[in-house]
Design a protein that fits this description.
Oligomer: heterodimer
Radius of gyration of chain B: 19 Å
Structural class of chain A: alpha+beta
Largest interface: A-B, 55 and 66 residues
Strand content of chain B: 15-25%
Number of strands of chain A: 20
Shape of chain A: elongated
Largest sheet of chain B: 7 strands, mixed
Mean pLDDT of chain B: 95
């Protein structure tokens, strides 16, 4: 689960992580009064969407598709500029490297006091799956594309690890500060920030905190000028407060609906809908479709505990996708019985209507019964018994090679 | 022979009175697994009826282990209680037996809980954890066998192939692939698809290398992390038997989590292509099409002189 920069910064402030003063706005009027209240010569007017690359993104009019402004993050030197920038941002579509060509409509804005920047650093905290520990990565090359730094000069990225049970010690934080060449009050300020961020990371079950740039200001103090925070969804049960931070307009409707039914759905670009039990098998099914020359339209894992209700919901979600030219169902029955899946498919098709080719592959628990249920129904369905045959059959059925 | 478990392994079920625990407890006994008891806090003293036997329920793992002399435990408790359940099992096995096997089926355990669990287990080297978020481990015997997990027992048969996989149903697919070319299994281990987990590919490969009955291994990876690359490098130097590899997720877009918490390509790392390349560089027979794993296995066995055709 991702949150907006303004929400992350409010969390930072509460945890003693230094940030600039700023105001969250949803209208141009609010942006103007934010400018008045901040009483700063320079302010940053920042688009709030759940995707990176905002500064280098472009804003378009959602209706005409016309380019409105280049850059989703602007530095304003006057009240008039604030008005100009905020009206160019709010309600418009921001397209960045990470949003894809469809972009995201900006409904939230953050107006923040300007900062006297002496140097920009990069900082990220995440779980290191190889080391089974929490990793802090920092670099003196801030404000730029960190993946490029990792590629071209990996030695510029400094790493330390800590165990969440022990927390981050001052010694380890100091050593990271030393690696960045910080000294005096800068290092003290850095260490304090790291220790606070590390506790925030573990207490709130984050999966990532990224600050790019983290800056040293004119007084030598460290300030988080950006804030990207995401949470481990598995830990949501012990953080009910997260619900208040959720911006469901940032998630696709289908993904939200799928989630409510215990399904895992990811939208893709192709035209063959997939319904599979198990994440690995679902990926393998997509891979097979591609190998036979087709393009999967989605990843859909119905999970281990799927019942007839969730399978019907899954099939309905697929049937609603107007891009589809064919559907492939691949079930390897374990706990899930193939005959139960067959009945759910029939039920959903009767309700929604099926007018594109459907290929079903059943294996494992009750596969023969499942096949029989389908064959005895009025449904126009091609049944196959292996994954390879399934890939071949669906691509052929939609007129591919 | 097999790795880590056999027909004699005495197994406890943590969460035995829950619907999952009772359901799978029943299935495991039907397969031939020696379930000797279970644990559900607050329900100690009860008895659970399984096919052909009634087993005692204990309040704690330490009572259960000392009363039943169990060597392994399988966990079906909900995600929020799973990490403490693993730690309790680890402490009991460590203190009472000096070691043991814990198989955690539970899906959705918070990542930081698992980081803490792994650091706890590092101080108890005799204890092995398989999972979490996995189908478990199974060793088919001539009649039944030992199944600790949720996989359908009926698709397996005793044989000479070891299987290691990050994914659940894809493990079944790999099993079906070996069966389709007339090969059975020594042991199949589902290591789970979470970013932080217990036993990894290398430990499985090491055990299969030392198991005289395992003559070849099928390894199923998926996108995310670098465990496959590390296993490939390790196998090149240390693994002498034929090895077949597949990686799921060649078509997965970067930055999207594909169901498993660990299955995500981030920062350009963890792609299927990198993993396939690492496999090839290590001399592993690769199947780019999961429905050709059986064929790849046959050619690996033929090349090693272990099969005619």
């Amino acid at each position: 689960m991702n949150i907006h920069e303004y929400q992350a910064k409010a969390m930072f402030r509460e945890s003693g992580v230094s940030v600039q003063r700023g105001v969250h706005c949803t209208t141009v009027e609010q942006a103007l009064s934010a400018y008045d209240s901040l009483n700063s010569d320079v302010v940053a007017v920042k688009s709030q969407i759940h995707a990176g690359g905002r500064g280098k993104g472009d804003l378009f009019c959602p209706d005409s598709g016309e380019l409105v402004m280049q850059g989703g993050v602007k530095v304003a030197f006057s009240r008039m500029e604030v008005e100009n920038y905020s009206s160019n941002i709010l309600g418009h579509k921001l397209v960045t490297k990470q949003t894809g060509p469809s972009g995201k409509i900006v409904s939230n804005l953050y107006v923040e006091s300007g900062c006297d920047i002496a140097h920009e650093y990069y900082l990220a905290i995440l779980v290191d799956r190889e080391e089974d520990a929490i990793l802090i990565m920092a670099s003196t090359e801030g404000g730029v594309d960190i993946e490029e730094v990792a590629e071209t000069s990996p030695e510029a990225i400094h790493k330390v690890w800590f165990d969440p049970s022990d927390g981050l010690s001052e010694e380890v934080a100091n050593s990271l500060g030393d690696s960045l060449g910080l000294s005096g009050n800068s290092r003290t300020s850095f260490t304090e920030m790291m220790v606070n961020l590390a506790s925030l990371f573990t207490e709130k079950d984050c999966s990532m905190i990224e600050i790019n740039p983290l800056v040293r200001d004119g007084n030598g103090l460290m300030v988080a000028l950006d804030a990207k925070v995401s949470f481990d969804e598995n830990a949501t049960f012990r953080h009910p407060w997260r619900e208040g931070l959720r911006d469901s307009s940032e998630e696709s409707d289908v993904e939200v609906r799928a989630h409510e039914h215990g399904l895992s759905y990811v939208d893709l670009e192709g035209n063959i809908g997939c319904l599979v039990n198990g994440a690995g098998l679902a990926m393998a099914t997509m891979d097979v479709i591609k190998l036979y020359g087709g393009e999967p339209a989605n990843f859909l894992d119905i999970g281990g505990g799927a019942d007839s209700e969730s399978i019907t919901a899954a099939f309905e979600i697929i049937l609603e996708d107007t891009r589809l030219e064919g559907i492939l169902v691949n079930i390897f029955g374990g706990i899930i019985r193939c005959d139960m899946v067959a009945r759910s498919i029939i039920e959903a098709s009767e309700e929604t209507g099926l007018n594109i080719p459907l290929v079903v592959r059943f294996s494992g628990t009750n596969h023969d019964e499942g096949r029989k249920v389908l064959e005895e129904s009025d449904l126009d369905v091609i049944t196959v018994s292996t994954l390879g045959d399934a890939g071949e059959a669906i691509v052929k059925a939609i007129g591919g090679n | 022979m097999s790795i880590w478990i056999n027909d004699e392994t005495r197994v406890l079920v943590q969460g035995i009175t829950g619907s999952q625990g009772t359901f799978h407890g029943t299935r495991m006994v039907e397969y031939g697994t020696d379930i000797v008891g279970g644990v559900t806090p607050g329900k100690g003293g009860q008895v659970v009826d399984l096919p052909g036997r009634s087993v005692p329920v204990f309040d704690t793992m330490s009572e259960a282990v000392s009363s039943t002399r169990a060597e392994a435990s399988v966990i079906y408790v909900p995600a929020r209680f799973a990490a403490p359940a693993i730690i309790e099992a680890a402490d009991s096995f460590h203190e009472l037996n000096g070691g043991g096997l814990i198989v955690c089926i539970t899906e959705g355990i918070p990542t930081l809980d698992m980081v803490k669990v792994i650091s706890h287990l590092e101080k108890r080297p005799g204890v092995r954890l398989i999972g979490p978020n996995c189908p478990g481990i199974i060793s088919p015997g001539s009649d039944g066998g030992c199944k600790i997990g949720i996989m359908p027992g009926s698709i397996h048969a005793k044989g000479r192939i070891g299987i290691i996989s990050k994914s659940g149903t894809l493990t079944y697919e790999a099993v079906a692939q070996t069966m389709s070319v007339g090969e059975g299994q020594t042991t199949c281990v589902g290591i789970g698809g979470d970013p932080v987990n217990g036993t990894g590919f290398i430990e499985c490969l090491e055990a299969f290398e030392n198991d005289p009955d395992t003559e070849a291994v099928v390894m199923i990876g998926e996108i995310g992390g670098t465990a496959e690359e590390e296993a490939a490098a390790w196998s090149k130097a240390n693994f002498s038997k034929p090895l077949v590899g597949f990686v799921a997720g060649a078509t997965a877009p970067p930055g999207k989590r594909m169901g498993h918490a660990g299955a995500i390509i981030s920062g350009g790392k963890g792609t299927a292509e990198e993993k396939f390349s690492a496999f090839e560089a290590a001399g592993i027979h690769i199947a780019r099409d999961p429905s050709k794993i059986g064929e790849a296995l046959v050619s690996a066995l033929v090349e090693a002189g272990l099969r005619e055709s």
